[in-house]
Automatic annotation (TrEMBL):
Designated name of the protein: SCO family protein
Alphabetical list of Pfam families matching this protein: SCO1-SenC (PF02630)
CDD domains reported for this sequence: SCO
PANTHER family linked: ELECTRON TRANSPORT PROTIN SCO1/SENC FAMILY MEMBER (PTHR12151), LINALOOL DEHYDRATASE_ISOMERASE DOMAIN-CONTAINING PROTEIN (PTHR12151:SF25)
Length: 209
């Protein structure tokens, strides 16, 4: 093989390596762009959380996940008859939302009921208005609520065997950060202070920009 042909072959090989390396680094950068913001790992990764859905918003409109998650959102699963935990968590999320707004970052609150029997759109409207002007309340059929909870690995159980009116509902209390487009980026336990939540969410928003 002549030196000219060797040069061509070598150049093509080098370009192929550069293209492959660039694609690898690009994919790695996309996968790791939030790595500096995360404080822990979960089995299956955060990409295992989430699902498509169609639910009923507090104004009565039927909406899909794509229509809800048009911007970064703090997603919480709870119910309005909850005596303490849900109001406290929603208030904390609203405080984090306000802190982020003060820094020029907008996030919305999304509240998905685990008690669709009692949480009608009207009830969700009254509940949400206590905490934020920018909160989306979602309800649906028993099957729809079960499916969306399963998508975010959220356990819940209504204790209504003896009382079908004033029962309580066991449920998990994580808040999820869902980015615009519907990808779940992080979750926050209920003992996360609003200031820490706002700081960590801000990291994700900066990394996404």
């Amino acid at each position: 093989m002549t030196n000219h042909k060797l040069l061509i072959v070598g150049t093509v090989a080098a370009l192929a390596i550069l293209v492959a390396g660039g694609a690898y680094l690009s994919g790695r950068s996309e996968a790791d762009r939030f790595a500096q913001c995360r404080t822990g790992n979960v089995a299956g990764g955060m990409e295992a959380f989430g699902t498509d859905f169609t639910l009923t918003r507090q104004d009565g409109a039927r909406v899909t996940a794509a229509e809800v998650f048009t911007r970064p959102s703090l997603l919480y699963f709870g119910y309005t008859f909850c005596p303490d935990v849900c109001p406290m968590d929603t208030a904390r999320n609203a405080e984090a939302q306000a802190l982020l707004a003060g820094q020029g970052s907008e996030v919305q609150l999304v509240f998905v009921t685990v008690d669709p029997r009692r949480d009608t759109p009207e009830v969700l409207t009254t509940f949400g208005e206590q905490f934020s002007e920018d909160i989306v309340g979602l309800t649906g059929s028993d099957e729809e609520i079960a499916a969306v909870n399963k998508g975010w690995r959220n356990y819940y159980k209504a204790n209504d065997a003896e009382d079908d009116q004033y029962y309580l509902v066991d449920h998990m209390t994580n808040t999820f950060l869902v980015m615009a487009g519907g990808a779940t980026a992080e979750f926050f336990p209920r003992d996360t202070p609003a200031e820490d939540m706002a700081r960590k969410v801000g990291c994700f928003l900066d990394a996404a920009s």
